[in-house]
Each structure stands twice: as structure tokens, then as C-alpha cells.
Amino acid sequence: MWSRERIILLKRQILRKSQKLCNLSDIVLMHHERYDGKGFLLGKAEVEIPIGARIIAICDSIDAITSNRCYRKAHDFDFCYQEIENNLGKMYDPIVGQYVLDNWNEITSVVKR
Questions:
Q1: What are the respective helix, strand and coil percentages of the chain, to the nearest 5?
Q2: Listed residue (2, 70, 57, 69) closest to 30, CA to CA
Q3: Domains and CATH numbers, the chain
Q4: Is residue 27 within 8 Å of residue 8, measured between CB atoms?
Q5: What are phi and psi of 93, to 5 degrees?
Q6: Distinct helix (H) and strand (E) counts, the chain
Q7: What is the pLDDT of residue 29?
Q8: What DSSP character marks residue 75?
Q9: What is the value of pTM for the model shown?
């Protein structure tokens, strides 16, 4: 069984081999980091985390929260909004997160399609 860490590092290695996708490797590697530095893999914080990874972290959370999982039903978008709002500056970049919240209806209209 492969560990989560090994899978993330393998994805990074694959992307680094592509001239067109190599710039995405750090985004893939660090999108599970938390803004407060308590995240997964490297323990990076704030601006140490590439902006792309900070954006993908919120996108990934929206998808994870509002999707069915084998262990729970999907939460609604109101719950998701509250989770993001409650975790600004902790899990999520507060500027990126506030932008998402300020544009919530537009963003979720795309996701709901």
C-alpha cells in the first residue's frame, strides 16, 4: 500500500519530467499545506506556499466538502462557506479565501453545473 506522502511525491516527479507541466509540481506538492504551517508534507506556511497551491487548497476543499464520500454524504454549499470562513488564516490564505467568499455565488454557480 502506498502512503499519501509517496503518492504526492510521485505526482511531483511525473510533473517535473514534463517541460510544459514542471512549473505545476510545487503546486501539486504543497496544496495540502496549511496557511498556518500545520499542513501536510513540508510544514510550509503563508508565502512559503506557492499562490497556486493556496488557490488549489480552497478549490480542493470545496470539492471535498460538497462531494459524497464513502463515509459521509456531501455537505451543502452553506456548510462549505462556513468551513472556509472559519478557517481563514488557519487552513486557507485569508486574502484568497476572502476573495472566494466575496464571490461565492459566482464560484459555486460554476461548481453546481
A1: 60, 5, 35
A2: 57
A3: 4-111 (1.10.3210.10)
A4: no
A5: -55, 125
A6: 6, 0
A7: 86
A8: P
A9: 0.85
